[in-house]
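User: quick one, sequence for these tokens?
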């Protein structure tokens, strides 16, 4: 589903307050090269109805600097990702002020729902944006950044750091490098879904 308007706008405080528990439409199609999976939408993102919409979120610069997009896209241009065989969804669809407002049970339930979606959509790679949520969804407490051994919904799994500006462990050059590694691997394996690398 493509978001409707691509005209950027900034939400008011009232918009942000009203965004609690709102959902942001998935950007998906069958047989994508990479389906990026966020934890859940923040209030700013939900208020504008665009994934990774908060200024300071490093997803869009990492996507561009990793070579996925020909230029830096605005969150309001997220519908253009489908033309590049990329999509975005979340583990948990409801918006919160902070991801730590989600319980492990809610993340696990979201993971089961996500797995059903992945089976239906058949992306080559499911790229989780956050190690912690992936560990909860998969039950793999030792999972780290990069390609995982197990499949998820029949698709390969890649774990990337959370691109939030609050994640000081990974600076923009490191994020770009990790996104590039994913891009190169995904491009080489696109169309060979579910086969061992």
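Assistant:
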């Amino acid at each position: 589903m493509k978001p409707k308007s691509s005209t950027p706008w900034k939400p008011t405080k009232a918009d942000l307050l009203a965004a609690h528990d709102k959902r942001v439409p998935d950007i998906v199609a069958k047989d994508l090269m990479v389906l990026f999976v966020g934890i859940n939408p923040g209030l700013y993102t939900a208020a504008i109805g665009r994934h990774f919409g908060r200024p300071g979120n490093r997803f869009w610069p990492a996507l561009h600097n990793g070579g996925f997009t020909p230029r830096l896209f605005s969150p309001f241009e997220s519908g253009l990702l489908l033309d590049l065989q990329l999509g975005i969804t979340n583990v948990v669809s409801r918006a919160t002020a902070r991801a730590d407002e989600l319980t492990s049970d809610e993340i696990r339930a979201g993971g089961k729902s996500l797995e059903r979606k992945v089976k239906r959509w058949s992306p080559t790679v499911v790229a989780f944006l956050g190690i912690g949520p992936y560990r909860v969804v998969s039950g793999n407490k030792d999972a780290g950044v990069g390609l995982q051994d197990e499949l998820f919904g029949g698709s390969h799994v890649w774990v990337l750091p959370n691109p939030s500006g609050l994640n000081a462990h990974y600076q923009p050059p490191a994020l770009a490098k990790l996104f590039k590694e994913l891009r190169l691997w995904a491009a080489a394996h696109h169309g060979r879904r579910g086969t061992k690398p």
